[in-house]
Amino acid sequence: MFVADGIIECIGNTPLIRCPMLRPMGGAEIYLKLEGFNASGSVKARAARQMIEAAIQREEVTADQAFVEPSSGNLGLALALVSGAKERRCTLVVDPRMTRYSEAIMRAYGAEVICVTQPDKGGSWQGSRLEQAQKIVAEQHAHMFLQYSNPDNQQAHYETTGVEIIEQLGSLPEVCVVGVSTGGQISGIGRRLKENGSCRVVAVDVEGSSIFGGKYSPYYLRGLGLSWWPGNLKADYIDAVYRLKEEFAFLSAILLARRTGILSGGSAGAILAAAMKEAMVLGPEGRVVAMVPERGDRYLKQFYSPEWMASKGYRSELDVATWLEWCAKLEVLPEQEWRPKQ
Amino acid sequence: MRSVVDSLSALIGDTPCIPLPPALKASHIYLKLEGFNPTGSIYDRFVLHSTLQGQHIAIAGNGAICASAALVGSILQVPVLFDPQDASLSVNMAEGLGAARAVDIVQNIQFDVAAALSGLIDEIKSEVPDVSVVLIPELPMLPIQTNEIKDIRIQWIPPMSSFPPECSELSQRGILIDAQSAYGVQLARAIQKEVVVIVCAIDGAIALEMEEYQCL
Predict the structure, then answer these.
(1) pLDDT value at position B211?
(2) With a cut of 0.90, is the ipTM above it?
(3) Distance from A243 to chain B by nearest Cα, in Å?
(4) What is the pTM of this model?
(5) What is the pLDDT of residues A8-22, one digit of tens each?
(6) Do residues B5 and A172 touch, judged by C-beta distance below 8 A?
(7) Which H or E run includes B101?
(8) Which distant-in-sequence residues (6+ apart) come within 8 Å of A276 by Cβ?
(9) Gap between the Cα atoms of B188 and B192, Å rounded
(10) Residue A119: pLDDT above 80?
(11) Do residue B17 and residue A1 have CB atoms under 8 angstroms apart?
(12) HSE (CB half, 13 Å, CA atoms) of A72?
């Protein structure tokens, strides 16, 4: 595959894999969009590229202006890569949950890494990272992207991910299942799919997150959930929401790895379980597309470790029959509990 | 646009080949990014050219080949047994994919390395038609006595004891590869008037976990 323009062009056009080994009896075909094949290893590469390139094109940043973002996850890694490729300075504000592995990658890309030490009053780290990043913006005249509300985040998925799904399948899927945190993916993909016809767009969240209601409580699973409703999350493009326990998400990801060779993060496990429920309900004529947001190598010493799972009181694996039973029992959240009132 | 595939084996190979960033001022050098294979290394290609004797896979040794063997075990749904001597990321990856530890391993999977490298060179020739030299890191299992494949000259990149500056020159431009492959840039710069492709054998993020490659 010759990529003339370099590493930036290794973002997008990710594989779509049909998984007959995951198809429920009498159920729909499941397709997995493997975003771990993006440069930097996750779906966030799309948003990082769009936010940076759009800001440069619209002249919202000067040539010598540094970038800053409160992110200790995949967006931080992706911003570090794209900033490096464009030879721009980048500062990432992280929190202690970040692994040394991720920190090493960020620094290898040339990013400065600053770690906050206290969570915000609600017990979440997002607030304290944001506050520190805002200080850097003020003191150093840096440019912050704010993925939670930056429209270029969802625009990336409207222009690329949603288009790819339709073109790769040859037509609209009946169902598309997407994990939710900033809302960029589901809003961008959902808008593109629904513009092209009838498609059920399903959101997946994790217990402990309060995006769709309830009280926030800390959890280990990365990449899903928040303690607030982010600006990029557009309810108009969501038809249903599942909220799963993180143990179930982790066990689903482990099963995915063992059954298909696809090593992914815990969020993919949650998304897969919800996709399986949707496939069971949809029937044999339908197609369910599920987003697999990232590669799993950064979690090998976390939930892929039986010792780590045991330390949290979680099982380390689940047999397929039990997993299917758990999937079948999943229920969507009552709409009146999560859909914002008009 | 990529077509829909039915197995992860279809995603082995056909990895990106990119020019060296212009800022590094060597327009005759290209990088073949084998880190984009499913387990992040060139060894995934070997499993496409392998022969298995038995109903399970037994793989000797450590390193990236174990992760690749575990990958094929997951794809074929056969058990994978190995006896690693360390706790590297590749070992963790193999276990994450379901490989189980065992003792007294007698390897029962044979890899046709020549066929795997031949396929790699075919890809490179189609991507960079003017290529005349391909640099490949000297890694376990690779035939370092070979100096030509399909009319292309092969030059082996030896391991080094110090960390080459090319590693951070590339990583700070968004290209994270293993240090040995990055050293290939130094060697390629010395090759004048020929088009060179460097095979970047291992994903840099995975190589970062190995003690001898520290980018901090």
Answers:
(1) 45
(2) yes
(3) 25
(4) 0.96
(5) 999 999 999 999 888
(6) no
(7) strand B100-101
(8) A22, A24, A27, A30, A324, A327
(9) 8
(10) yes
(11) yes
(12) 24
Helix (H) or strand (E) holding B154: strand B152-157
> What is the percent of chain A where pLDDT is above 70?
100
* Set of chain B residues whose Cβ sits within 8 Å of the Cβ of A3: 16-18
Comparing alpha-carbon positions, the chain B residue that sits nearest to A16 is B4
C-alpha separations of A198 from A29, A33, A172 in Å: 18, 20, 8
Q: Which two tokens stand for residue A107?
A: 């620094």
Q: Across the interface, which of A10, A168, A257 has its CB nearest the CB of B1?
A: A168
- CA-to-CA dists, residue B17 to A49, A292, B13, B14, angstroms: 20, 24, 11, 9
Question: Token match 């493997």: residue?
Answer: A34
Structure tokens at A194: 């629904």
Name beta bridge partners: A231: none
Taking only residues 75 to 114 of chain A, the set having a beta carbon closer than 8 angstroms to any beta carbon of chain B reads: 81-82, 84-85, 87, 101, 104-105, 107-110
Amino acid symbol at A13:
N
Amino acid type, A10: C
Q: Could A109 and B89 be called an inter-chain contact, meaning their C-beta atoms sit closer than 8 Å?
A: no
A303 contacts in chain B (CB < 8 Å):
none
Token representation of residue B159: 């391991």
3-class secondary-structure state, position B119 = helix
Convert the pLDDT of each residue in A182-193 to its tens digit. Answer: 999 999 999 999
The distance of Cα A94 from the centroid of its chain, to the nearest Å, equals: 17
Of the pLDDT bands very low, low, confident and very high (cuts 50, 70, 90), residue A136 is very high
Q: For residue B6, what are its two tokens?
A: 């039915």
Q: What H or E segment, with its residue span, contains residue B100?
A: strand B100-101
- Which residues are paired to A143 by β-bridges? A67
Residue B70: closest C-alpha in chain A: A261
User: pLDDT digit string (tens) for B178-189?
Assistant: 889 999 999 999
